[in-house]
Amino acid sequence: MSFNVIIWIYLATFLTSCTTDFCNWTGSFTDEKGPGLVLQVRLRCAAGWIRWFSPGQALRVVLEPTLSSTPRPSVCIEPSPSLRGVRVFIERSGRLTLLATEKVTCFRADGDHGPVPVIYLETSVQSTAPWRRRTVGLKYELTYPRTGASPGQTGPEGDLCRPCNNTELLMAICVSDFVVRGSIQKVSHNSNRQTSLIHVSLTRVYKQHSNMFEQQPTSHWHSMSSPSWSGHISTLLQCRIKPGEGEFLFTGSEHFGNAWLGCAPRFKDFLSMYHSARAARSNPCNFPLD
């Protein structure tokens, strides 16, 4: 569903009762400032949040990270429970496309003015007193292909779901938010969220953020055995992930505290490729082989 963008006035410097630190924005906007006005906010980070007190008619958020030479990013939005009553759009080429806000939603930045994502929030309820005392908000994250592939990226399916080539894999072990080794226990699918959840059992955690994978308690009888971890890795339902036997090297990115799959070769195939790259001195970083 698309809507024409109708913006009467941009208020680039109209920040009374508002605070911004280039990543996050907190502010309010009331009808006393003028009916039909659209407050414009510019943020320059790859992640942050927006909190809108006593929301007025509309808020336009331009995400302009200072990485001007990067490829076109994807944007993931995590709405707060209080966002009910606010419609969220993305702006592309002068038109608005409505987003679902019951879940984490991701989209590819696109438009006539380059890779600059624009989010447009519009209240859809009457300005009653209880509503005007509310606070609504959302979190956002920008990611870049391929090593930062985002959940729900709306680009070509094959780009996100295809196996990584050797160059992408070598870079993934250097820059991914997590790099772990283990096996797939099962895969569960959620058609409503259009995601698949990979349940993994791990024998080695090389790198992770935010304790996405938890170490399992060891009994007294197995105190001398190697530690093990478990956790979940999400990916798109359209990738049609199935359980596979053997050990894998899982890499990927963290989004709102959850692990999302990037490159995932079989571990023996990765070792063969890595040994060849190291012999040719083409590996961008070292990987522990013990």
What does this structure look like?
The chain has 290 residues and is mainly β. The protein contains 4 helices and 19 strands. It has helices at 129-132, 157-161, 166-175, 267-279, and strands at residues 2-4, 10-11, 19-20, 25-28, 38-43, 47-53, 58-63, 74-79, 86-92, 95-98, 105-108, 118-123, 135-143, 178-190, 195-207, 214-215, 229-236, 248-255, 258-261. The strands form 3 sheets. The protein has a 7-stranded mixed β-sheet, with no helix packed on it. It has a 6-stranded mixed β-sheet with strand order 3-4-6-13-8-11, with no helix packed on it. The longest helix has 13 residues, at 267-279. The chain is elongated. The protein starts with a strand and ends in an 11-residue tail after the last helix. Residues 1-18 and 146-158 have low confidence and may be disordered.
Can you lay out the helices and strands and say which pair or pack?
Blueprint: E1 2-4, E2 10-11, E3 19-20, E4 25-28, E5 38-43, E6 47-53, E7 58-63, E8 74-79, E9 86-92, E10 95-98, E11 105-108, E12 118-123, H1 129-132, E13 135-143, H2 157-161, H3 166-175, E14 178-190, E15 195-207, E16 214-215, E17 229-236, E18 248-255, E19 258-261, H4 267-279
Parallel strand pairs: 2-5, 4-6, 5-7, 17-19
Antiparallel strand pairs: 1-10, 3-4, 6-13, 7-12, 8-11, 8-13, 9-10, 9-12, 14-15, 14-18, 15-17, 16-17, 18-19
- Which blocks of ≥5 consecutive residues have pLDDT under 50? 1-18, 146-158
Distance between the termini: 53 Å
Radius of gyration: 22 Å
Strand content: 35-45%
Tally of DSSP helical segments: 4
What average pLDDT do the residues reach?
A: 75
Strand order of the largest sheet: 1-10-9-12-7-5-2
Cα shape: elongated
Structural category is: mainly beta
**Largest sheet report:** 7 strands, mixed
Range of helix content: 10-25%
Total E-strand runs: 19
Helix-strand sequence: EEEEEEEEEEEEHEHHEEEEEEH
